[in-house]
Each structure stands twice: as structure tokens, then as C-alpha cells.
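Students often ask what a holo structure prediction actually looks like on paper. The answer is less mysterious than it sounds. You provide the chain, you provide the ligand, and the output is a string of C-alpha cells encoding the 3D arrangement of the protein together with glutamine.
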Amino acid sequence: MKYIFVTGGVVSSLGKGLAAAALGTLLELRGLRVVFQKFDPYLNVDPGTMSPFQHGEVYVLNDGAETDLDLGHYERFTNCVLSRHNNLTSGQVYESVINRERRGDYLGKTVQVIPHVTDQIKARIRELSDESKYDVVITEVGGTTGDIEGLPFLEAIRQFILEVGPQNVVNIHVTLVPYIKAARELKTKPTQQSIAKLREIGLQPQVLMCRTEHALDAELRQKLSMFCNVAPEAVIEVRDVAHTIYEAPLMFHAEGLDALVCKLLGLQTPEPDLNNWRKFVERVVSPQKRVKIAVVGKYIDLQDAYKSIYESLTHAAASQDCGIDLKLIDAERLQDGVDGQLKDVAGVLIPGGFGDRGVEGKIKAARFARENKLPYLGLCLGMQVATIEFARNVCGIANANSTEFDQTSSDPVICLLDEQRDVTNKGASMRLGTWPTKIQHGSLAEKIYGSDEVLERHRHRYEFNMKYRDQMREKGFEISGTSPDGLLAELVELRDHPYFLACQYHPEFQSKPNKPHPLFKGFIQAALAHQG
Ligand code: GLN
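The corresponding C-alpha cells follow.
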């Protein structure tokens, strides 16, 4: 079993997760079986209770784990399917250590960061060390070297390397080499200091991945190599990608990263075949046509809040040799009317969300899409607002609402799931993870999916109120997918519309570069047809 640890230095947001994911792509294409793990040093047990302002998107796994968005990169860039074992937070580590202490597992001992907390972290790395399944475990450590919170993780990694032997491990440090305009020079000092911090803890990286706005010349590489104690060929230049994050594996390969890592780990592997990946990138970079799609949400100013949705749109568009022009619309700005803001788009997507801020604007956007036969894709809350809209404006149920927004609504067309009625804790308590959906015969969804049963990932507390099913169906609102027992609405569509599909689940968590999700692909095809 081989291990790669990815740490980050100097500043955050250097794209460590992407670097780990893209290295995973290359190793997989060399025939290795790769699995990922993310360590998050914060004290939340999981990011499920954090706001998108704090954390960006919460990425949901098959088993219902609410995780860091880097796990989305890992799943999109490789074939791995992750579970709750692949994201470890300080909150989880301390929770389990304290539970064990209460149980008496450490009876007689003082419980300490070293060895008890670090043992727990090492145990989680070992959990993935299953040679029948994987060849390489890539572990990314969140945060920046030098953070107090990150220390136990780094200490655990130091001990772990001692246990498995340095020949089985590569440490990669992702760092910033800033350009100082006044001096017209790239500066290596922050990287030197970051490495010094790591060495203080007893970790010596073998590979430096240097984020830089300018090329690293031979002299600079030499300097970084000497001061940071890594081989000159292990100083990898990481420039901003020109167009798309999917260029990262190609860039890293050109820099020799995958060959180097395999050499350091003593792995004999063939050169990766990057043809399909390259073709995908070409379609993203220079598509034949373009289509304009509106995303109406609450967090459109945050790049990371709807990450998987934007990626899914990119995958679907590339499959149609098409580029996406995103029009990001703050739902609150539509409260008083759509006002021409959706006139120039070929499709409307409404993502998931919580709380009533912006909801009336989303309802107006859904109405505009329905009335103007504009392709519509509603995801989770996007399905719930489409339901409220149809109930109010087509079925004449004036007070239709979700009990999430109006607990006293006389017509709760969306209401709390039965299983949620006695739930008081907010953490990991929604209807989460993969559940099957039975698709109705003859529906648009069946045509789009080409299947009558699908597995999709969920994250919600509210659901369609089946009491309104018949009344709404009569007017053209079809529930085209349900849970196998028929009790929960999973997918709805409008009979009299070219593409109005909305689902209670999150298809955006299952789209990949060369495997776009059918609902997104159908949406882009419909948008292209709409724009003519
Ligand atoms: N707030 C809604 C619910 O809990 C929708 C959730 C979502 O969009 N993820 O059901």
C-alpha cells in the first residue's frame, strides 16, 4: 500500500483539493486503484451545519455523509466512490476519543493529543489501507501549515510514516510563490518558511507544487530545491489554468508529476492515456456553440456554493459540444418580478437551499419558465418552489406554501417528512444519501434516463404533500418519479412543456466529465432546442 499526503502552505485557496484530485486522475490512468481521504481540522463533526458563506457547498455521498466539497473533486476526477470513511474532521476525532474515554477504554490513563488523538487519526488512515481494493491512498490535509488545529493531523502523519516506512509515502506540499511587482521577482521565502514549519513537525516534503503567476526558471527551481530540500525535478510549477480546472491533470503530466510520484513510490506503471481527457478539455475550451443558462439562487456571489451544479452544467454542455454562458441571478432581486431578467436565457436552473430568503423570487422564476416554455431544471428546493408556483398560479391554491417558510400555511403543498417530525438535532439529521426512485412509464424522465429505476443522492427535510397530487395532476403537473413504495415524490414534470423537470434529490453529485448526468444533459439539449 502506498500513501500520498498533500499539505498546503503560505495561504489557503491554493487548490490543494484540485491538485490531489488531478494527481488521482493521472494515477488512475496509469492503472492504479486510487482512493482519497480529506482531513478537515475544524471542530464541526461535519460541514452539514455550516453556511455556504463559511464552507461553500456541502457535498453529499452515497451513504449520506455530508462532506467537504473537495470530495466532489475527487469523485469527479476519478472513478472512486467515497463514503463517510473518507472525510475526517477534528470534531469526529475528538468525539470518538471522548466517547471511548467515557466508555472506559483508556481506564487509568490520562487521555492526551499524543498518543490518543493521533492514534485515532492513524486508525482512520489504516481503515482505508485495504490492498484488495486500493493501491494508493491520497490524503489531503485541510487548512494551512502552521494552523494550530492542523497540528495533530501532521503529527499523526509523521508517526504513520515511521510505521509504514518512508519508501511507501510521498509528501506533497502545495505552496505559493508570489510575484512582487516592485522587485519584478518571484519570491521563494514564504515557501521556505512553510517548509521550515513542516520540518519542525518532522515532515519533509518530497514534492513541491508551486502556485505561481509566472514561469519558474531554472535558477528559481534550484533555489527552491536547495532551501526546501527537495530534488530540482520535484519542484512542480502550477500556473493558473487557462480555461478550465480540467486542464490540471494535463498540466501536471506535462510537468512530470505523475512519473515522479510513481518513481518515488517505486511503482512501475505505464504512461497514462490522456486522449479522452484531452478531448473533453478541448470540447470545454473551444465548443462549436454556446448557450445561456440562468442559475437563480441565494449564494450566487460565492464561487463555491453551487460548485457541483456548475461542474455538472459544464459536463453536460461539453457532451453537446457547447459552452455555457452562466447568468447568475440573485433570487432576492426577483422578488418584485422577473422583469426581463430571464428574457435572454435558454434555460433556468434553481438549485437547492434552506430558509425563506429569496424563495418568492425563485417562485417567480419558475413561473416565468413554465409560462414561456423555457427549459427548467429544479433541484431539491428548486422542485419545491416549482410545486408551490404551480399550485398557486395554475391550481388556484392561493395560500400554497412550504411549512419551511410558513408553518401555519392553510395549504402546505410542501411539508415536513413524517420521519422528521420528532427530529430535534440539526446535525446529520436530514433524509440523506442514496435512495431509489421508480420512474413512471411513458414520462419524459423515463426517456431522459432510459431507465425505470435510478439511484440518486438526497439532502432534505421537506417533501411534496401527496394530498395535492390528484388536484395538481389534473392540471398537468405529473409526479414522474417516486420512492419505490410510492409514498414520496422524487421527480416532477409538466405535461404541457418541452422540458420542465424538477427533482427532490441532487443529481449534481453524480455527474462526471465524460459521463454527464442525464437530467443535466437533457436540460442542455432542451435549452439548445429552445434557442434554435
Ligand atoms: N429546504 C428544503 C428541504 O429541507 C430543500 C433542501 C435542499 O434544497 N437541499 O427539504
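Residues 113-127 form the longest helix (15 residues).
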